[in-house]
Amino acid sequence: MVRFEDVWLRYRHLASRNTVETTVLRGVNFEIPDGGFCWLTGPSGAGKTSLLKLIYLAEHPSRGRIDILGTHAARISRQDAALLRRRIGVVYQDFRLLGHLSAYDNVALPLRLARRSEAHIRADVAEILRWVGLSGRLEARPDELSGGEQQRVAIARAVVGRPKLLVADEPTGNLDDAQADRLMMLITALNQLGTTVIIATHNTGLVERYPASRLEMANGELVSYE
Amino acid sequence: MANWFPMSKRTDLLGLGTGLTDWLLPVLVAAMSFLAALALAGTLASATLAAQWRQDTARALTVQVTDPQAPDAAHTQSRAQAVLAALSSTQGIAGARLMSTEQLNKLLVPWLGADAAQLALPVPAVITATWQSADNTAALTASLQKIAPGTLVSTGSAWAARVAALTASVQTSAAAVLVIVALVAAAVVAVATRAGLAQRRDAIEIIHGLGALDADIAGRFAARAMMLTVIGALIGGALALPVLIWLAALAAPFSGLAPQGLVPGLPPALWLSLPLLPLAAAAIGWCTAQLTVHGWLRRLA
């Protein structure tokens, strides 16, 4: 379950010796049940990425309460926050792959951090890379991969640990429709196995092809949740 | 732990094995270790020499007999011979020896010039000896003055106290040098670690976001810093060794530490202490990196 109660997010920064405060989220309230599937839509600058950052614990809210997978996010220790992050798969808009590691090792990262055995890692990583169509590119580094291939590695990394919550920011932005559909099948399968899925996208066609609940953002506010 | 060190290509998640600035840390730590080895040797050598000098000085006994050729109180022999005989028969006193006129004149040359012998001054006889219980001179003086009134007894206790004070100040200075070297080494490790953190900020944020514990990230940096500081300390210690052996050879006439076969004449305590330098460097590297990384990570959510 993901629940936001009157969540605000403000950034402070210095401009011409003055501290300027920018409010990016204003009083956001919603609840996505366990195993739910939810699209997050809205124009650029609406606050989608900021909202996702709060969900995957990369930011703390300035005000309000956030519960992630049944945990009050503001009340956990740094160690517990790290352990909670291991249950959340994230697909970043800019992929965020480690440039010095191969595709295989990038995908294996969450499993290695969770201290899984190498035999277990080998089987799971090979399987997921085959699913995203990269079984022939295991040893390629990110700079040897196309944008679409990097995006698929990022998706594979997000789902390889079978997360309880999958958060994706424009996961199909660099993919053609066929690849996007294949990845949506993977995500749908994960969702059917109990993973809660939240995907931010501008792709209205994708939203129409895969009907689900939808959070609509505008100017830092949640304008609809249906 | 096997996941941290040594860092194979697959487990080096932060790319710590590929940092271009890494060579600087062992070089600086080698310089620090070189200085630490010299300071350590200085501390131990001054302690060894001072202990020896203190013992020799404190046990030195000097007796001055005025009017040495006059008969003693019993009128059986000269005052000088009577005092010498009394000293030789006193328990705890060894090596009593009457200084010759030539030796006395040589001692007086700095004050009276080369013609001291021709001045016909009433020079007292001087008897030197070593005495185990040199702290109780009153009883000895009293017994000697019964034989030859006016005899003066002096020991090296005052000089021994000065040597002890000098030794303490030398050791304090050497200890201060060691502390400063350790602090500078810690500062060097902290700066290198911060540079490494800045260089790998993106990678750290990524693995932090994937659920890496602060202890995981700090442990990786600490293991790397520890390895580099140990390498630096080994290099510094190896470079210091020939210098220490050369200095030991120079000090051999005073220290009494002669080479024994192929083993150079360094104080045994130094042979035991030098291997501690890499261990100390490892501890400094590991602790400093841990503190630096944990402090830096607190900025992340």
Q: Could you describe the 3D structure shown?
A:
The complex is a heterodimer of chains A (226) and B (301). With 226 residues, chain A is an alpha/beta fold. Chain A contains 7 helices and 10 strands. Chain A folds into 2 domains: 2-87 and 163-225, 3-Layer(aba) Sandwich (Rossmann fold); 97-150, no CATH class. The longest helix of chain A is centred in the C-terminal third of the chain and has 16 residues, at 177-192. Chain A starts with a strand and ends with a strand. Chain B starts with 23 loop residues before the first helix and ends with a helix. Chain B is rod-shaped, with a radius of gyration of 32 Å. Chain B has a 4-stranded antiparallel β-sheet. Chain B folds into 2 domains: 16-55 and 161-297, no CATH class; 67-150, no CATH class. Chain A binds chain B through residues 56-60, 78-79, 81-86, 90, 96-98, 100-101, 105, 108-110, 112-115, 157, and chain B through 3, 10-13, 15, 18, 202-203, 205-216, 301.
Overall tally of structural domains of chain B? 2
Strand-residue fraction of chain B? 5-15%
Contiguous uncertain segments of 5+ residues of chain A: none
> What is the typical, i.e. mean, pLDDT of chain A?
91
* Rg value of chain B: 32 Å
Using the coordinates shown, work out and report the CATH topology of the largest domain in chain A: Rossmann fold
Radius of gyration of chain A: 18 Å
Largest sheet of chain B: 4 strands, antiparallel
- Under CATH at level 1, the class of the largest domain in chain A stands as Alpha Beta
Major β-sheet strand ordering of chain A: 6-7-8-3-9-10
Low-pLDDT runs of chain B: 1-8
Structural category of chain A is alpha/beta
Shape of chain B: rod-shaped
Q: Tell me the quaternary state.
A: heterodimer
Helical residue percent band of chain B: 55-70%
**Helix amount of chain A, in percent?**
25-40%
Pattern of helices and strands of chain A: EEEHEEHEHHHEHEHEE
Beta strands of chain B, count: 4
